[in-house]
Amino acid sequence: MKILALNPGSTSTKIAYYVDGEIIEEMSIDHPVEELQDFKYVSDQLDYRRNHILSFLAEKKIDLTQLDTIVGRGGILPPVTAGAYEVNQPMLDYLTKKTKIDHPSNLGALLAYELKEQANKRTIAMIYDPVSVDEFDDVARVSGLKGVPRKSIGHALNMRAVAMKVAREAGIDYQNGNFIVAHLGGGNSVSIHSQGRMIDSISDDEGPFSTERTGGLPLKYVFDLCETHSKSEMLRLYKREGGLKSYAGTSDAREIEAEISAGNQELAIVYEAFIYQIAKAIGSLATVTDGKIDRIALTGGVSYSQKVASGVSKRVQFIAPVVIEAGEHEMIALSKGGERVVLGEEELQLFNY
Question: Localized where (predicted)?
């Protein structure tokens, strides 16, 4: 079985070639910002990125015509259930003409379809666990202000992959267990998975602050900032200049930990608050299943930190055993998703809007 996985990011395209259960070739192609500036919209980068992928395939002597499936990172579609979706014309139309967010992940489906055209008739072009996966229970959608619903936006691909991996290694059926997954990176997402569905999550704009995002803030004090800052400036504060960066001047957790070790007590308190808020988010989601949790998993780049991993674990291990799955698992998640479809273990869904 031969699978090509594609994960387009803001300044890179990650590629993985997966054969019979194992990634054989993997590469992240960097795209200089000065080159991307030539494109007005993300969709305009299609030929540019496809040519880079074709060069990779030629260099590694990977034959497109031998692929069983090409699976891309899913983009900003309307809310959909988790899993695999065949790339069809309605999906292509939505991503190029209807989607409200011009996001790099939108290219995943477009690239998979373009490459399939050069493969063979049996090759499947698909996406897996797009950004817009939404399996919330109705009660989880209520925010506290009518007309402003809570929405499922976060690291669904990585979090579902980690939850399934942790379940499998613990000998627990993902479809019958309860798992909490905290993705810790530039932005934090914490989700709860119950009976095979991601039924609630705490996104990076309402939960714990991260290395560079503010997380949820006390609104009555934010109103004053809105009077002196434009919307774009507020978005920059929330997404790029908040979190640890606003206190330490850097979003690099390693640098911050080094300063703390050197005796910076003010930063030590901020870093403890960082850990404290992550643990608090995990604890709040445990109430969703009445405290019945099989495993808690920490993933994302920041979970490489022993200080963060041990600090969070100490606070939440009374709920359930904690497993560390550091880094991102998106390429293997895409590959495994494609494999399950080819083997008939998972249904290939059709997208319509």
Answer: Cytoplasm
